[in-house]
Design goal:
Elements: H1 9-27, H2 31-59, H3 63-86, H4 94-122, E1 125-126, H5 129-148, H6 150-153, H7 163-187, H8 209-244, H9 249-259, H10 261-272, H11 276-305, H12 315-331, E2 336-337, H13 339-357
Antiparallel strand pairs: 1-2
Helix pairs in contact: 1-2, 1-8, 2-3, 2-8, 2-10, 3-8, 3-11, 4-9, 4-10, 4-11, 4-12, 4-13, 5-7, 5-11, 5-12, 7-11, 8-9, 10-11, 12-13
Pfam families: Na_Ca_ex
GO molecular function, one term: potassium:proton antiporter activity
Organism: Bradyrhizobium arachidis
């Protein structure tokens, strides 16, 4: 990554994503427009990763990874809320499906692939146990509160909270996530700093203030373009899912996967460069942000619209979530990882995908 100049593609793809998005708004998501949207989306993802890395190199860890996690999650939340407002009755379970899919994609897909690729290249990698443990403690509390407790808190409503319970759950989610960010960036920042490696990029001069500000602007342009294109592609995705006769919950999986692409690529690149701590900061941080920010937002929308919000997972998904948290505690309990842990997480992710398509 060069701090001296910005390559043409890093601004061309964000601009292209907006142009294709305008084309989709005018002409609708037809075959050709959908194909262009898909190409522009992936180009904008690569641009977003580049600009996030420029910012991270300037501000240092863990602030750099926090910037990307917060930016992606904020816009992901806006996407979910916009879809809920458009069809509140039909999308009562969209937030649950998307949040659960994001947690499984991050904790098993992204983490598993990062551990596998990093282990294959460097044999064994190290990270800060305290940072991973702090993230897992908060993640366990958030997932239980948001995705499991609704099944038991008000039995007469099914997998949903009453209005007072929903307000309380949203408030606690914000408090938990805010406490984690405070610990990560202020109180115990050293828990989340990368383990020392021979990575040459760390020793490069950081980019200038002007370059960093330009990347910050282009990062936001890229992320808005990514989410806009993801929303434009959603009808095509829903039509395809209907034709394939697979569960509607797969829509949430697709939305989460598209929005998490920038973080996934950044995490994989960091793992390959033997910066596993940075990779875990991105992965676990995005999982926490997804729940901590999305649940309060969709709770507020649900209350305003007067529509029931289905949050509780069924028994199958609860089991997948439980084994994910259990295996994660073991994986991050030693401070060292190999390809074996990566394979285990990827197999759990494969199980999640299989049962999502063939319940």
């Amino acid at each position: 990554m060069s701090a001296a100049r910005t390559s043409w593609w890093t601004w061309a793809w964000p601009v292209a994503s907006w142009l294709v998005l305008l084309l989709a708004l005018v002409l609708g998501a037809g075959g050709l427009v959908s194909a262009l949207a898909g190409i522009a989306l992936f180009g904008a993802v690569f641009a977003a990763v580049y600009h996030a890395e420029v910012i991270a190199h300037r501000v240092g860890e863990p602030f750099g990874t926090l910037v990307l996690a917060l930016a992606v999650t904020t816009i992901e939340t806006a996407l979910i809320v916009s879809v809920m407002i458009a069809a509140p009755a039909e999308k009562a379970g969209l937030a649950r499906d998307t949040v659960f899919a994001a947690v499984m994609i991050v904790c098993n897909g992204i983490v598993g692939l990062s551990l596998l690729m990093g282990g294959a290249r460097h044999r064994e990698q190290g990270f800060q146990i305290q940072g991973a443990s702090a993230a897992l403690v908060v993640l366990a509390a958030l997932t239980f509160l948001a995705l499991i407790l609704p099944n038991y808190a008000a039995a007469e409503l099914g997998p949903a909270y009453t209005t007072p319970q929903l307000v309380f759950a949203g408030f606690v989610s914000l408090v938990l996530y805010g406490a984690f960010v405070f610990v990560q960036t202020v109180r115990h920042r050293d828990f989340f700093l990368p383990v020392k490696t021979d990575d040459e990029e760390i020793h490069e001069h950081p980019p200038s203030v002007q370059t960093t500000l330009l990347s910050a602007g282009l990062l936001m342009v890229s992320l808005v373009g990514i989410v806009g294109l993801a929303k434009a592609l959603t009808p095509t995705v829903e039509l395809t899912i209907t034709r394939l006769d697979v569960p509607k919950a797969v829509v949430g999986v697709v939305i989460a996967a598209l929005v998490l692409l920038p973080e996934a690529l950044a995490a994989l690149r960091a793992a390959q460069m033997n910066r596993l701590q940075t990779s875990l900061n991105l992965a676990l941080g995005s999982a926490l942000a997804t729940i901590g920010l999305t649940i309060p937002a969709v709770a507020a929308v649900s209350i305003v619209l007067g529509q029931r919000l289905q949050l509780g997972l069924d028994s199958k998904d609860q089991s997948l979530l439980a084994i994910t948290l259990f295996i994660s505690v073991i994986t991050f309990g030693t401070g060292r990882t190999t390809v074996l842990q990566g394979i285990v997480h990827l197999m759990i992710f494969a199980a999640f995908m299989f049962f999502a398509v063939a319940p």
